[in-house]
């Protein structure tokens, strides 16, 4: 399969999330992920971008860049944005504890970690970069 | 076409007690549309409704922001003597609820009719956790 790469640049607004999901679905389909793998990656990317909008941006005029690259084994999606450090790979509050406390926030990080095969984070030249990888089964 | 909508209907209680308010969700519930869902649930409480069913027949997507709204209203509704039951989720949406263990806290019913029946006095002791996503 030829490698395919795509780039999507969006303003840091939640109204863009639906468009992000549609693009990820298209990229995943093109890369040959199954419907379930596609759904899982779509949800994980949605959570990563929502986190960037909520926590990481300096202001709403900032943009978020989402890149995808497929290889023979699966699809990588990278979410990059300037702003404060926000590392989604750090351990979140344990699920049982969050449920017990009736927490309203914190579930997105669990989804992010659970739904992809690898998740990595780095802070480079003032920008947060979260990389998600979903393997084809 | 809007990507998310909430519509309301009222059903009579299965036996005695207050009527049941059903919120039919359609579309995609994410960080952008979650405030609309939050306002809808708040309006139910403001109008004195505490027996609520959220129906997901036409809900295609839920993110953690949407799940947080469910969580925010669970105790306020139960403190008023009611419940926030969830009905008729698609397999895809149920997957997300299940992944986070929400069926341990919420009463998930396969259909709105089943959720209504669980508001009957004899069903009041039924525990959440006996959940299934679809009819």
Automatic annotation (TrEMBL), chain A:
Keyword Transmembrane: no
Record Gene3D superfamilies: Histidine kinase-like ATPase, C-terminal domain
Top-level taxonomic group: Bacteria
Bilayer-crossing regions: none
Lineage, opening ranks: Bacteria, Pseudomonadati, Rhodothermota, Rhodothermia, Rhodothermales
Pfam family, one: HATPase_c_2
GO molecular function, one term: protein serine/threonine kinase activity
Name listed for the protein in its UniProt record: Histidine kinase/HSP90-like ATPase domain-containing protein
Entry keyword annotation includes Transferase: yes
Record keywords, A-Z: Kinase, Serine/threonine-protein kinase, Transferase
Residue ranges of every copy of the Histidine kinase/HSP90-like ATPase domain listed in the record: 13-134
From TrEMBL, chain B:
Pfam families: STAS (PF01740)
Coiled coil: none
Listed InterPro entries: Anti-sigma_ant, STAS_dom, STAS_dom_sf
GO molecular function term, any single one: anti-sigma factor antagonist activity
Ranges where the STAS domain occurs: 19-119
Family listed: Belongs to the anti-sigma-factor antagonist family.
Protein name per UniProt: Anti-sigma factor antagonist
């Amino acid at each position: 399969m030829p490698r395919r790469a795509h780039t999507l640049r969006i303003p840091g607004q939640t109204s863009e999330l639906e468009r992000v999901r549609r693009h990820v679905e298209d990229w995943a389909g093109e890369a040959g992920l199954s419907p379930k793998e596609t759904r899982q990656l779509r949800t994980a990317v949605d959570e990563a971008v929502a986190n960037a909008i909520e926590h990481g941006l300096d202001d709403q005029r900032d943009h978020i860049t989402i890149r995808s690259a497929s290889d023979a084994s699966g699809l990588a999606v990278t979410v990059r944005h300037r702003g404060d450090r926000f590392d989604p790979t750090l351990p979140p509050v344990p699920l049982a504890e969050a449920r017990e406390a009736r927490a309203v926030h914190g579930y997105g990080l669990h989804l992010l970690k659970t739904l992809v095969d690898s998740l990595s984070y780095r802070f480079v030249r003032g920008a947060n970069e979260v990389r998600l990888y979903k393997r084809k089964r | 076409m809007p990507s998310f909508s909430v519509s309301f209907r009222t059903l009579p209680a299965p036996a005695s007690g207050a009527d049941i308010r059903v919120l039919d969700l359609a579309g995609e519930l994410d960080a952008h549309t979650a405030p609309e869902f939050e306002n809808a649930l708040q309006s139910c409480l403001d109008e004195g409704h505490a027996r609520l069913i959220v129906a997901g027949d036409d809900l295609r997507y839920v993110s953690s922001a949407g799940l947080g709204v469910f969580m925010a209203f669970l105790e306020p509704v139960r403190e008023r003597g009611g419940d926030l039951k969830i009905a008729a989720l698609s397999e895809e949406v149920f997957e997300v609820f299940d992944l986070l263990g929400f069926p341990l806290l919420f009463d998930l019913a396969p259909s709105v009719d089943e959720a209504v029946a669980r508001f009957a006095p004899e069903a009041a002791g039924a525990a959440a956790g006996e959940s299934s996503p679809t009819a």
